[in-house]
Design goal:
There is one protein chain. By secondary structure, the protein is α/β, with parallel strands linked by helices. It has one domain (3-189): P-loop containing nucleotide triphosphate hydrolases (Rossmann fold). Helix content is 38%, strand content 13%. It contains 7 helices and 5 strands. It has a 5-stranded parallel beta sheet with strand order 2-3-1-4-5, sandwiched between helices. Helix 2 packs antiparallel against helix 7 and helix 6 packs across helix 7 (178-184). The longest helix has 20 residues, at 123-142. It starts with a helix and ends in a 13-residue tail after the last helix. The mean pLDDT is 87.
Length: 197
Amino acid sequence: MTDRARKSVVIVSGLPRSGTSLMMNMLQSGGVPVVTDQIRTADEDNPKGYYEFERSKALKEGDFTWVEEAGGKAVKVISALLRYLPNEYDYKVIFMLRDLQEVLDSQRQMLIRRGQNPESVPDAEMKLIYQKHLAGVKAWLASQANFQVLEISYSQLFVTPKENVAQICAFLERGLDAAAMQAVIDVNLYRQRKGRV
């Protein structure tokens, strides 16, 4: 592992319900220390936990003093806040991609379980919003010299787990426990699968 890889902050990002919690679980199982406060506990929507860090949600307000201590660790940062990470650090971003209809279906089920209205914004409108957002985030990431990005397809994790885990291990340059990472991938938790909802 290079010194730069050792010091880089590993960022797990993507849209809500795109598999970021699964990836955090995989990284932790593989040997990457994770930054999480356990404030948001596991529930029916995420039985293995959310792996969130509340302070990351305040990046836009300038709360990023914690980033220095996150070197060599993994932290989940929502895609809308990536641009607020301080420039003086190196980042390795694992960006989760998932079929947008699956994302919306998963969000709908979560809202229903919480007694909220899942039809507040039509799916077609939300898809356009997400597509525009993702295009903007990807373009911004590509322009940042201190950000290395690996895109991982949520669905492909279940189709070719061994290959995807190998790709993640090579990207992070850490000598991770690939078998332990692969063991975390539970097809029973892939519930809002395209064509099955």
